[in-house]
Amino acid sequence: MSEGGRGNLGILREAVENIKIMDTHEHLPQEEDRIKELVDVFSTFLPHYASSDLVSAGMAEGELEEIRNPRLPLRTRWEKFAPYWEKIRNTGYARALEIALRDLYGIQELSLETCEEASRRMREANKKGLYRWILKEKSGIELSILDSERIDVDREFFAPVMRFDGFIALKEKWDLEILERHCNSPIHSLDELERALELEFLRLKDSIVGVKIALAYRRSLSFEKSTHEEAEKVFNRLYAQKVFRRIDAYGGRITKPEGLSFEEAKPLQDYMMHKVVALAAKHGLPIQIHTGLQEGNENLITNSNPVHLTNLFMEYKEAKFDLFHGSYPYIGELSVLAKNFPNVFVDMCWLHIISPTVARRALSEWLETVPGNKILAFGGDYRFVEGVYAHAKLARENVARVLQEKIEDGTFTEAQAVRLAVRLLRENALDLFFPRAGIRKG
């Protein structure tokens, strides 16, 4: 092939297939917990994503819960599922399920008979060694960054990040009581809250590879600069709330707190977000932030526009911000942010199954606007391991197709494209999350 020639998709695709992926984001249970579950096509594959499409297509929440129930007969569940399956088979979420069923369990198309056979094969595979087979052998993933709120993870497969949302999203006295139990320490003032946060970072910093913020499900990502005095006034109001407790008819304890409105609580929440960012930067921990589309139904998308975070990028130049999901649908906004700010990184986790077409278009744009060391091309973002395999397959396909187009239009040589693929799927994540680790490159 000449330096400016069309290139060979077979060579590029083979190179992409051989990359040991560093996966930036997962929600998987530990294997020991997964193999204890009652697995079948519906209960295992419909905890999220495709289930949101089912609801969007008109399925009632009660029907969805019945379909997910592994103790109900598969035939009964299939009859409820089938009409809606035909309505969502066009989506990226559904395509991922079909890829997983075909490649891992040999099921070409879902029907009453095949969903029973697929479930049988899933039960047979649901034993020790499942994760090695799917994550390592089938998916070619070396390590996945796990968002699971625990640090005792299997380090063969995972490296954990930790959420600090509980220190930020304070609206009720109940929230403080939960924090006190978590920290095993009383929190009677804003200063004690800050100290508890500092101690939590000290406890975790050597066990985690980053910080996760998922507050776009609960509020806007606009975190203004609050003073200690402004935050303290809110804390004192929150702490002074009366909390009423009673015993319900079944002997369980119910707590009914008075709460602050979001606008009332915002100065304290904003103040604590700034503290979390400052501590993450101090300890060299990248900050993963959910931006763009929220999973589920009936969310407020404007909460998650990454532009809201601009003041944080400007103030905390030493912090590194890993912005999730390509900020879809705010792809152009993310292009500008990552181009302008050295501390902003593009993360394509989830994006390839939201829309493979959008993911390719976005990656093509980012390769023309954002330095190549700042694009992280894959994070599975699944709660079941079969989904990770399907998503990784789509991601490799998308990366290969976009880079091939760049070869054909003369933007890259084949050698440059292969080098970029390694960066996108592996080395950029290594550099961001494991800068001092001995994990090999290439």
Give structural notes.
There is one protein chain. This protein is of the alpha/beta class and 442 residues long. It has two domains: 38-125; 132-433, TIM Barrel (Alpha-Beta Barrel), CATH 3.20.20. The protein has 20 helices and ten strands. An eight-stranded parallel sheet has the order 1-2-3-4-7-8-9-10. Helix 7 (92-105) packs across helix 19, helix 13 crosses helix 14 (262-282) and helix 16 (331-340) packs parallel to helix 18 (356-369). It is globular. It starts with 8 loop residues before the first helix and ends in a 9-residue tail after the last helix.
Radius of gyration: 23 Å
Q: Compute the number of helices.
A: 20
Principal-axes geometry comes out as globular
Largest beta-sheet characterization: 8 strands, parallel
CATH class of the largest domain: Alpha Beta
Low-confidence sequence ranges = 1-6
Properties at a glance:
single chain; 442 residues; alpha/beta; TIM Barrel; 8-stranded parallel sheet; two-stranded antiparallel ribbon; 51% helix; globular
Summarize the structure.
The chain has 442 residues and is an alpha/beta fold.
Write the layout of secondary structure elements.
Elements: H1 9-17, E1 21-26, H2 31-34, H3 41-45, H4 50-56, H5 61-68, H6 74-88, H7 92-105, H8 112-125, H9 130-138, E2 141-147, E3 158-163, H10 165-168, H11 173-183, H12 190-204, E4 211-213, H13 228-239, E5 243-247, E6 253-257, H14 262-282, E7 287-289, H15 310-315, E8 321-323, H16 331-340, E9 344-347, H17 351-354, H18 356-369, E10 375-376, H19 385-408, H20 414-433
Parallel strand pairs: 1-2, 2-3, 3-4, 4-7, 7-8, 8-9, 9-10
Antiparallel strand pairs: 5-6
